[in-house]
Amino acid sequence: MELRINQKTVQVDADADTPLLWVLRDDLGMTGTKYGCGLAQCGACSVLVDGNVVRSCVTPVAGVVGRDITTIEAIESDEVGKRVVATWVELQVAQCGYCQSGQVMAATALLKHNPAPSDAQIEAAMVNLCRCGTYNAIHAAVHELAGKRDA
Length: 151
Ligand code: FES
Ligand code: FES
Fold this sequence. Notes:
- 34% of the residues lie in helices and 13% in strands.
- It is of the alpha+beta class and 151 residues long.
């Protein structure tokens, strides 16, 4: 089947119900998207599909044919994604980093839909798990990106 990933068209040979995560990682070698729980619980596998954050570990590849998939490998080609990554670096959000590609995808999706989210909206959107406990740093980074530097 034919997929549109990071503005390129790629051909993949996979069963229709194969999770998108495994197509990305195993078939296409795009290992920036991580496997955590495999149960739609942690968000490590988050990618954007038509601008919305999606958990690729439970998304059958057949369901994203013809849709616009963006992974962490290309997130900096998006203007908002580029700002998110720059702020993540500036505020040194990551610890081990394992969950962070998913966190960046979630933050980018939030800010593309709502450039100035309230604290409650940030809390509601940034629900990916982080075993290192970077939640305060993540919140601070999204807060900064929402233009609330002094709040
Ligand atoms: S690996 Fe997909 S949500 Fe945890
Ligand atoms: S930075 Fe280590 S799991 Fe989140």
